[in-house]
Design a protein that fits this description.
Order of helices and strands of chain A: HHHH
Helix content of chain A: over 70%
Mean pLDDT of chain A: 88
Number of helices of chain B: 4
Strand content of chain A: under 5%
Strand content of chain B: under 5%
Radius of gyration of chain A: 18 Å
Number of strands of chain B: 0
Structural class of chain A: mainly alpha
Helix content of chain B: over 70%
Mean pLDDT of chain B: 88
Structural class of chain B: mainly alpha
Low-confidence stretches of chain B: none
Number of helices of chain A: 4
Largest sheet of chain A: none
Oligomer: heterodimer
Shape of chain B: elongated
Largest interface: A-B, 30 and 27 residues
Distance between the termini of chain A: 56 Å
Low-confidence stretches of chain A: none
């Protein structure tokens, strides 16, 4: 029963990796379009502040940040799972990856909310 | 059977596609961290952000952006192939799936790289 629960957790983690990949592909196309097509490829503080003052755009950006951090750092975790690491090394590495994810998300969230017009 | 650490395997397309998928993922993770640390400048006020953007407004950075687009497109296309194989596509078609998704990816890459290269030309 315990083995079944461990496999289910890992399966859920991987399923969310796949789902976040699909959602990220869609949001990335929107991000690329908005950045490079719709404003002529100029990037100044004023343009970004105007975009971020719309609450739905800020929501999509926050979602983008959270999903890409999950997808990327889970990918790194999967790569490290394939190396022949000792148990302590593996645990420490995964804790470092989680802390990195949380720190980067808080940093990005603070930046997104600190752009005022 | 010799379990030597120096065992050599014959290269095949599935191995190359998997290795390139992992490499592209690592490159994108590194880019992500650099991108978040660059966007930190947004919180330091308009002047410093516009200064940083002027620094990055040269054609070499545009070429690097084209390379980034290529990496993202390859990673997405490889992921799509993995999803198709996991959803039940027969694994004897893995080469066909690779070439079909690569063709699709090249179309998207061309569509996305043209405006970047045009703006690089305009900056020159």
């Amino acid at each position: 029963m315990k083995e079944y629960k461990v496999e289910r957790t890992q399966g859920l983690i991987w399923s969310f990796q796949v789902i976040s990949g699909i959602v990220l592909a869609i949001i990335l196309v929107i991000h690329f379009w908005v950045l490079h097509y719709s404003s002529g490829d100029i990037l100044t503080y004023e343009i970004i502040a105007k975009r971020l003052s719309q609450p739905w755009y800020k929501f999509i950006d926050t979602l983008f940040l959270a999903l890409v951090l999950y997808h990327g750092l889970n990918g790194a975790r999967q790569i490290f799972l394939d190396f022949n690491l000792k148990n302590r090394t593996r645990q420490a590495l995964f804790i470092i990856l989680t802390i990195l994810a949380i720190v980067l998300f808080l940093l990005g969230f603070k930046i997104l909310n600190s752009v005022i017009q | 059977m010799i379990y030597s650490p120096f065992l050599r395997y014959k290269w095949n397309l599935g191995m190359i596609s998997w290795i390139l998928g992992r490499l592209s993922g690592l490159v994108l993770a590194g880019y992500l961290i650099a991108h978040i640390l660059t966007t930190c400048y947004l919180s330091k006020g308009p002047q410093s952000f516009n200064d940083v953007m002027k620094l990055l407004h040269n054609p070499y950075v545009k070429l690097l952006e084209v390379c980034l687009l290529g990496t993202v497109v390859y990673h997405a296309v490889n992921g799509f192939k993995v999803i198709l194989l996991n959803l039940g596509a027969p694994s004897k078609y893995h080469k066909v799936l690779f070439w079909i998704t690569t063709l699709f990816g090249m179309l998207i890459f061309t569509a996305g790289a043209i405006p970047l290269l045009l703006s690089a030309w305009r900056i020159l």
